[in-house]
Amino acid sequence: MIRFPAVFALLVPLLAYAGEAANDVEGARSVHRGGLVFLHYCVNCHGITADGNGRAAKLYNPRPANLVKTDKNDAYKELNIRRGGAALGRSNFMTPWGEELTNEQIKDVLAFLHSIQERKPQK
């Protein structure tokens, strides 16, 4: 069972992104839908805050990726989601979701991940 504070922690980036994207309603909707897909498929391993510390994370070596601090681009993340970690020479435990998720769901998850990724300070 997901507790309210944990869900709130996940929704804060969504709300921040929605505020930034007030003129991009579909972008905000995509982030919201991607957050829901993330909660359903990804949270057990990657954690409610996407930091790689989900409930199942301790079962895996290597541990799930910290999706907040990742340096991977969207194309790489999409391949990882579709084909799984083993196909990219990464963890065999990363499930290939290409047969399970629709193209729209994958696009939405990528939008969500982009919304929560730590931004490097501008100089």
Overview of the molecule:
The protein has 123 residues and is mainly alpha-helical. It contains five helices and no strands. It has a domain at 4-71 and 105-116. The protein has helices at residues 4-20, 25-41, 43-46, 74-83, 103-116. The longest helix has 17 residues, at 4-20. It is globular, with a radius of gyration of 14 Å. The model has no long low-confidence stretch (mean pLDDT 86).
Using only CA atoms, what is the Rg? 14 Å
Q: Which percent bin holds the helix content?
A: 40-55%
The low-confidence parts are none
Contiguous helical run count: 5
The first-to-last residue Cα distance is: 42 Å
- What's the overall geometry? globular
The succession of helices and strands, N to C, reads HHHHH
**Describe the biggest sheet?**
none
Strand content: under 5%
Please give the oligomerization state of what you see: single chain
Number of strands: 0
Mean pLDDT: 86
Structural class: mainly alpha
Summarize the SSE layout with pairings.
Layout: H1 4-20, H2 25-41, H3 43-46, H4 74-83, H5 103-116
Q: What is the structure about, briefly put?
A:
The chain has 123 residues and is an all-alpha fold. The protein contains 5 helices and no strands.
Keywords:
123 residues, mainly alpha, single chain, globular
